[in-house]
What does this fold into?
Amino acid sequence: MTKLQEVLTRRLRLKQPQFFLRKDGPYINGSIVSESFKGRGDLNRQLALWGALEAELGEKAAKMVGMLIAYTPAEWDLDPLPPSRQKPRARVAKV
Amino acid sequence: MRAIGENDYRRGAAERLAESRLILRAGRYGGCAYLAGRAVEAMFRAVIWKNDPEIRLGRKPLETGHDLRQLLNVIRNLGLLRRPIDVMLQVKAQRIARLWFNNMRFLSSRFVESRWRDLGEVHKRHTMKQAAEDFSRVLEVVAQCEELCQ
It folds into this structure.
């Protein structure tokens, strides 16, 4: 996972990225939060993420990574109200 | 009492979608986006029910509440949204995760519009009406996505 973070940060020149990644079975899934995604559309973000991974890891990327979602900090904190449940939100653990 | 299963969730999704279209035609954009999100929730629940035997057999609770982002995480962690399956589905999933929030249910259309404006979704050349129409179209595609239920 550290390798994945390093590759994405370097290749996409991410500003102050936060990674919320988790390994589920053979795949790493998770979310990446960075101001660098601001102004980029959904397709553009996915192409950028996968472009970076494939450029660095080749075919291994699709075998290693399941799904990544890219957020800006504002999108990550979109919901203005606290969750109504008492339990903490089950978001993936910060790595 | 009969337990709720995949088909119940899928039927619910279809009904919420139909209601969402009616609300859109009435110009109630916040409600339309919210309700289309509920349709996606029902579809996600159907997918999880089908693909996670622990949930299906009631051995494990689904601790996501009604939050689409959390449900999407569960589906993602089941390995059902891997890139080779469908790139565009991942793009749509990302759009939903970015723009939909559970507490839309309590908030006015104006509030939702203001949030979306902050995110650049609503601007001079892309009105709230257009943004809501686009977003509901994405939700509609995902809520009807048979691919996830194969």
Q: What stands out?
A: Chain A has one domain: 2-75. The mean pLDDT of chain A is 84.
